[in-house]
Specification:
187 residues; homodimer; mainly alpha; elongated; DNA-binding
Chain lengths: 187, 187
DNA sequence: GTCTATATCTTGATAGAC
DNA sequence: GTCTATCAAGATATAGAC
C-alpha cells in the first residue's frame, strides 16, 4: 500500500532528522531502514525539500493534537503547563532525539523557504498555546507569580527548545529536568 | 606565516559551523574563503574532527575570557547577568549564527568523542560561572527572588541556548530579547 | 606550507524497464 | 510502486612535487 511506505518513510526520516540533523541523514539511510531502494523514495518524496516539508506538516499537526489533548484532560494552568513540559520531556527519548524544529534550525541555510515558513508557523502555534496556559494560570492562580503571560510564553518556548539541546548534549534526561526546576516549582 | 593561515581557517570554520551546522560546510568552502586549496587545509587540520576540536578549544577559551572580563568590569549580580545575556545577544549576529555548541549538538552523531567531551566541559564551565552570578545576585540582592542559584543557572544556560535557537529560526534579534524579558525584569 | 593530481565514497536525483 | 542502472556533483582524504 502506498500510504504504508510513505508513513514508514516519514517515521524513519523524522527519527533520523531529530537524531542526526537535516544534513546528517541521506536517502540511503532511509532506504536501508524501510527496506526499499533509495530511488523508490523519490516516488513518494521527489526531493529532500519536499520530504522535510511533509515532516514539518505532520509534526505541527501531531503537536497541535497533543496540545488539544492536554487542554481536554486538564483544566488548570499549572496542570496544563506540567503536561506540556512532560510532552517535550518524552519527545527527548532519553536524550537521543531533539524536537524536529530544533534539529532543523541548525541547518537553516540548507532548508527550503517552504519549510522555514512551516517552522515559523509551528513556533507561532506553540507560542499561542503556551500563552493561553499562562493566561489561565494567572486567572486561576495555579501558577505562582504570573504578571506577563506573553513574556512567560516566549521564555518558556525558548526554555523547552534549549533544555532539549542541553539534554541532548549530555545525553541525559536529568539535564532536561534540571532546566525546569525553577518553572515546575511555581506550579 | 603558519599561524595566520591557521587562525584564518578557524575564523572561517567557526562562522560556517555557526551559520550552517557541522555537516553544512566543507573543506572546499573554507579553501575558497581563505584563498588556499582544500588539500592545504589538511596540513593544518588533518581531519574535520581535529578541526572541530580546535574550534571548541578556542571557543571555550574565548568565552571563559569574556566571562572573566565581565567579572572584572561589573561587581553586582544583576550587572554581570545582564552583561552575560548581552554577550550571547551579540554572538547571535542579528540571528545569523548560533553559539558553536548549539550548532554542533544537532549533528551530535557526526562528532568525535573528543569534541563531545569538550562540549560537556564548556557547559560545565558556563554553568559554574552562571551559578556564581546568581549566588552573588542573591547575596547582594540585585537579582529579585533568587532562592536556588543552582536551578537558576541550569535554567539560564538552557534559556541562553534556546533563545539563540528561536531567534535563529526567525532570524530576528527581537525574538532573543523577548525570551529574556522575564529574566531581565528581575535585574 | 602550498600546490596538482588523484582516490574513494556518498550525495540527491533521473530514465526507463517491469 | 519498486526496481536497476546511471549520473554529475560534492565530500574527506592522501601522495608526492615544489
Amino acid at each position: 500500500m502506498s500510504t504504508e511506505t510513505k508513513t514508514a518513510l516519514l517515521d524513519v526520516a523524522e527519527h533520523a532528522a531529530r537524531a542526526r540533523g537535516f544534513d546528517g541523514f541521506s536517502y540511503a539511510d532511509l532506504a536501508d531502514a524501510v527496506g526499499i531502494r533509495k530511488a523508490s523514495i523519490h516516488y513518494h518524496f521527489p526531493t529532500k525539500a519536499a520530504l522535510s516539508e511533509a515532516l514539518m506538516d505532520r509534526y505541527h499537526a501531531t503537536l497541535e493534537t497533543e496540545c488539544e489533548k492536554i487542554e481536554a484532560e486538564y483544566d488548570t494552568g499549572s496542570a496544563r503547563l506540567l503536561a506540556l513540559i512532560s510532552l517535550y520531556r518524552e519527545a527527548l527519548n532519553d536524550g537521543k532525539t531533539l524536537c524536529l524544529c530544533v534539529s532543523l534550525i541548525s541547518s537553516r541555510e540548507s532548508l527550503s523557504n517552504a519549510v522555514l515558513e512551516k517552522i515559523d508557523a509551528f513556533h507561532a502555534m506553540m507560542l499561542g498555546r503556551i500563552q493561553a496556559i499562562f493566561d489561565l494560570g494567572q486567572e486561576d492562580k495555579t501558577i505562582a507569580g504570573v504578571t506577563n503571560p506573553t513574556a512567560e510564553a516566549r521564555a518558556t518556548l525558548a526554555l523547552l527548545e534549549g533544555a532539549h539541546l542541553t539534554a541532548r548534549a549530555a545525553e541525559s534526561i536529568q539535564t532536561f529536568d534540571a532546566a525546569f526546576e525553577m518553572l515546575t516549582s511555581r506550579c
